[in-house]
Design a protein that fits this description.
The complex is a heterodimer of chains A (about 450) and B (about 550). Chain A has helices at about 1-15, 15-50, 55-90, 100-120, 125-155, 155-180, 185-210, 220-225, 230-255, 255-270, 275-300, 305-340, 340-345, 355-380, 385-405, 410-435, 435-445. Chain A is an all-alpha fold. In chain A, helix 2 (about 15-50) runs antiparallel to helix 3 (about 55-90), helix 14 (about 355-380) runs antiparallel to helix 15 (about 385-405) and helix 14 (about 355-380) packs parallel to helix 16 (about 410-435). Classes of the chains: A mainly alpha (about 450), B alpha/beta (about 550). The interface of A and B includes residues 227, 230 and 305 of A.
Chain lengths: ~450, ~550
């Protein structure tokens, strides 16, 4: 992610408020845009459905499931493709990005279209919804792929433009189509899909412009999947953990309770946006520079004492980011907790949801903290440790949510405790690894292998 | 990663398993020479084996990596019962794909967990620390190394090994680029561990024909088996490595980039060069400590060995020897090489013929062929010359190419010819002067062979060259000079000597005759073999008492 890191740094170094805001908005776009948009759409849909006719409940359920499935199933692909792209950027073989990316995009489009068909059949959607729903699933999956590749390659402005244009088009088109044509939910879904296609188109164009005109058709992605399978597993575990509690609640308590719980969790998740953006910008700028300077000095011939100093600076920076993320998240969570009754009212949830919403907001904050720990460990290529955190989160969320359901406690409490345990475990791992950074860097090197 | 370790020790031809083979009388340990590389030391080893038909020999060849040395260059004599090979490095593996890298990563992770669970500290690691941090290389270090309780994975991935690396970095090489130090640390110690793990070749006595890796292995086996060790040093191994290190372009002296290749042999000390240097010196001291006899070729080398830690009472000088070529000398005399007094016309006719100057040796940097070429170039300005480079050029093709390019650039392609290796009988009968410009030598067989043919020699002042040209003892000196001694890397001095011999036929003949008298009196093969026979007999009889 070095490319976008320098671009973010330039925005910040510009010294103006607008530059800094642009940097953090980029962070928002890269980290949160797809699900932010989705949540916004779902919330809008809920608001509109109180006054309009049509099968909005079905549309809402379908979109929720589509996003959940695309996020979970495409996460391993995105991580591997993103890592593969970063490697090619590092070794300056950009011509080896395009062919596997084309194939991965085709696979995603076909694969998710098939999944979309399966969904519309499984959810027994009307034909009109099904005709739009299946392609929309494929478009959303491809969007994620382009975002993961483009995040490291193209200008943040392109990302901002893609989502900045796509989101309003989606909303406006959805409302316009729904009102212009008496197609009910299908019309809304079609309008929404138009915006998503615009976003995807802009992302594809941005990536294509960042790639060289020549390409090495012999480049293959499969070896990267094998090499980065632990990373892929981490990503899969993390994204499943986001939805695991909802599935557990659906199984244990039924569809209505699950929908209620999912709505609370979705709205509470908004509270992590500032921390997400802060983490993204800080990791890609200040932390990356510390990290890079360690390896630059290493390669330039720094003696041990200087390397130890640089390792200590990384450690200091990592601690600063952890503290900073905690501070930003605590602030956001405190705000959300304080404003919980108002937020619950605005999103048309029952007033009884307020305490649960507060717990969900705290849990979401802890989950973001765990994600930061995963990011830091991934930076040091400590894939197994990252997997341990993600696995801990998945197992914890699933188990504790199930236990809470079983003993009659609110499921959100299980989620919160699981996130807290994971955050603590992750913190321990990060601290431990930072202490042995130099040792791990060297003693993990192979010998006699090209 | 360690898949090629099985190939680290390979025996072939005569026995398969060194540990079950019948012990030879003598196990000769050589590094990078016999029987795979042509050269003076290899010829000497071959000669020693052939000269002791009553003894059985096993030969242990220490090579860099499997396949590096090609086919054998010598037919093994019948009294060689086994030829074993041990390699310092493994064969380079092809690049790994994603799956391979992932598997390797998991392997290393599992290894690190297992290594960290090791209950006892390694004695080998402690020995290596004493070598490099405390500067010790005595019997206790040898005993620690002989334990062989450190595996290669433990060295590469273990925490205690990294602790030693950081100790070296902090106390021995605080300014060294740590990344380089890390790889050099591995490059230094990984071969040592492979040698420590090599199965012992049984023998009644061990004879290392150098210190270095062969000397280390011989000392280890001698220590483990209680069998005596004899060490013969032709050149001084540690000093030769120092010279190579001083111009090695694979060592980064300071942060920022790899140093440029050196055009001279001026000494240059950097932390990493010091590390390597102290390592080779430690290897020498270990061999010196364990050896019962240390054989050298000259007083000059003896002094260097003592300076490097060899106990003086163990050192004995046994010069090399050659078979005399009486018929060849007669042949040269028949060719009227000797100018007749009172017949100046003969001398004039000889002077009119172009002087035939030969460089005889391997075309490698340590022989400094560049100085020879430059010397001939300078001399050609004054006299007519025909220069030949006689010796194999495949050992360092890059260097050979640079030398050829230099000849071409100087416009001397017609005067300086690369003729490749030739049998001695064809070399010296057709030369008037032999020139050696080496940076390092022991007691060059080339000089003795030239003397045997009555050919005078111009040689740099390295090893035993001055003794061989001007005489070692009073009796020797009375014979007179058999050539000229020049400074190392001094083309002008070498050229001046060539010009002088080219212009003074009488001097050339006198020096050739002195050389022949010298080799006849002091450097006969039979004398050298008789001394080694006595040494071997003494060692073997002492083992029978065991």
């Amino acid at each position: 992610m070095a490319g976008i890191g320098w671009k973010l740094q330039r925005m910040i170094d510009h010294g103006s408020l607008s530059g800094t805001i642009a940097a953090y908005l980029t962070g928002v776009a890269v980290t949160s845009a797809p699900w932010l948009l989705t949540t916004a759409v779902l919330t809008s849909l809920r608001l509109v459905s109180r006054h309009a006719t049509g099968d909005f409940v079905g549309v809402e359920r379908f979109l929720t499931v589509v996003y959940a499935i695309t996020v979970v199933l495409s996460a391993p692909v995105h991580v591997v493709v993103s890592r593969y792209t970063s490697d090619r950027l590092y070794d300056r073989h950009l011509e080896r990005i395009s062919p596997p990316l084309r194939r991965a995009t085709a696979l995603i489009l076909v694969g998710f279209a098939a999944i979309g068909v399966g969904l519309v059949i499984g959810l027994r959607l009307p034909l009109a919804l099904a005709l739009v729903g299946a392609p929309l699933t494929a478009v959303i999956g491809a969007q994620w792929l382009m975002l993961s590749v483009g995040g490291g390659m193209m200008s943040p402005i392109v990302l901002l433009r893609a989502f900045g244009l796509g989101a309003p088009v989606s909303l406006v088109a959805a409302l316009a189509v729904e009102r212009a044509a008496p197609a009910g939910g299908a019309g809304y879904l079609f309008g929404f899909a138009i915006g998503q296609v615009v976003t995807l188109g802009l992302l594809v164009r941005g990536v294509a412009r960042a790639l060289p005109p020549t390409s090495d058709e012999s480049a293959r992605l499969y070896p990267a999947f094998v090499e980065y399978r632990v990373l892929a597993a981490s990503a899969f575990a993390y994204y499943v953990s986001i939805w695991a509690d909802k599935i557990v609640v659906y199984v244990a308590k039924g569809g209505d309770t699950a929908a209620f719980y999912a709505a609370i969790a979705a709205v509470a998740w908004f509270s992590v946006i500032p921390a997400f953006a802060w983490i993204y910008v800080q990791v890609e700028t200040a932390f990356y520079q510390r990290f890079r300077s360690f390896y630059t000095e290493l390669e330039a011939g720094a003696p041990l004492r200087e390397l130890k100093q640089h390792a200590e600076l990384i450690s200091v920076e990592a601690r600063r980011i952890l503290r900073g993320a905690a501070a930003v998240q605590v602030g956001a969570t405190a705000l959300v907790v304080a404003a919980a009754p108002r937020i619950v009212d605005v999103v048309a949830l029952s007033p009884d949801a307020t305490p649960l919403f507060r717990l969900a907001a705290i849990g979401a904050g802890l989950q973001v903290f765990a994600l930061l720990e995963v990011l830091l460990l991934t930076y040091f290529d400590l894939r197994r440790d990252a997997l341990v955190i993600c696995g801990c989160l998945l197992i914890g969320v699933t188990t504790l949510t199930a236990i809470c359901c079983a003993i009659g406690w609110p499921p959100v409490a299980g989620h919160l405790v699981a996130c807290a345990i994971t955050a603590v475990v992750g913190l321990g791992l990060v601290r431990q690894r930072l202490q042995t950074l130099v040792l791990d860097t060297f003693q993990s090197q192979p010998f006699g292998v090209a | 990663m360690a898949t090629a370790d099985n190939a680290a020790f390979a025996s072939f031809g005569l026995v398969d398993d060194p540990e079950v083979a019948a012990p030879a009388d003598v196990c000769l340990l050589v590094e990078g020479t016999y029987p795979f590389v042509a050269g003076g030391v290899s010829s000497w080893v071959h000669d020693v084996i052939r000269g002791h038909p009553e003894l059985t020999f096993s030969v242990l060849f220490v090579g860099s990596y499997p396949g590096a040395h090609g086919e054998r260059r010598f037919e093994l004599p019948r009294n060689v019962v086994a030829l074993h090979q041990v390699f310092c490095q493994e064969t380079a593996l092809p690049p790994l794909d994603g799956a391979g890298r992932a598997a390797l990563r998991e392997q290393i992770r599992a290894l690190r967990i297992a290594i960290d669970a090791r209950p006892e500290p390694s004695r080998v690691l402690s020995g290596l620390e004493r070598m490099h941090v405390q500067g010790e290389a005595g019997a206790e270090v040898l005993a620690s190394l002989a334990c062989n309780d450190l595996t290669l994975p433990e060295l590469l991935h273990g925490r205690p090994s990294f602790q030693l690396l950081t100790t070296i970095a902090e106390r021995v090489a605080p300014d060294a680029p740590f990344l380089d130090l890390f790889w050099h640390y591995r490059a230094i110690f990984a071969p040592v561990l492979r040698l420590l793990a090599a199965p012992t070749v049984p023998a009644r006595c061990y004879h290392a024909v150098a210190t270095g890796y062969a000397g280390l292995l011989a000392a280890l086996w001698s220590h483990r088996t209680g069998r005596p060790l004899m060490l013969t040093e032709h050149g001084i191994y540690a000093r030769e490595r120092d010279m190579e290190l001083s111009r090695a372009d694979w060592i980064r002296d300071e942060a920022g980039g790899v140093s440029e290749p050196r055009s001279t042999w001026a000494p240059r000390i950097s932390p990493l060069r010091r590390l390597w240097s102290s390592f080779f010196k430690a290897l020498s001291r270990i061999a010196y400590v364990q050896a019962r006899h240390i054989i050298t070729l000259s007083d000059a080398n003896r002094a260097k060995q003592i300076a490097d830690g060899a106990p003086p009472e163990k050192i004995e000088i046994v010069p090399n020897g050659v078979e005399l070529q009486l018929s060849a000398v007669d042949q040269r005399q028949e060719q009227s090489e000797q100018p007749s007094e009172g017949r100046p016309g003969d001398a004039i006719s000889l002077q009119k013929r172009r002087l035939r100057v030969g460089f005889v040796g391997r075309v490698v940097p340590i022989k400094d062929l560049v100085t020879f070429i430059r010397a001939v170039d300078i001399a050609l300005n004054d006299v007519e010359l025909e220069a030949r480079v006689i010796g194999p050029a495949e050992e360092d093709p890059g260097y050979a190419t640079r030398c050829r390019q230099l000849v071409s650039r100087l416009g001397r392609s017609e005067s300086i010819q690369f003729v490749g290796p030739m049998p001695p009988a064809k070399i010296y009968g057709d030369l008037d002067v032999v020139v050696l410009t080496s940076f390092s030598e022991g007691q060059p067989l080339v000089i003795l062979e030239a003397y045997a043919w009555g050919v005078p020699v111009i040689a740099t002042e390295v090893g035993a060259c001055r003794e061989m040209i001007e005489g070692r003892s009073d009796e020797d000196r009375k014979i007179g000079a058999s050539g000229f001694v020049t400074r190392v890397a001094s083309p002008k001095e070498t050229a001046a000597a060539i010009v002088r011999l080219a212009r003074d036929v009488r001097l050339r003949w006198q020096m050739g005759a002195a050389g022949h008298r010298r080799v006849t009196t002091f450097y006969q093969r039979r004398d050298m073999l008789a001394r080694y026979r006595a040494l071997y007999t003494g060692l073997i009889e002492s083992t029978e008492r065991i």
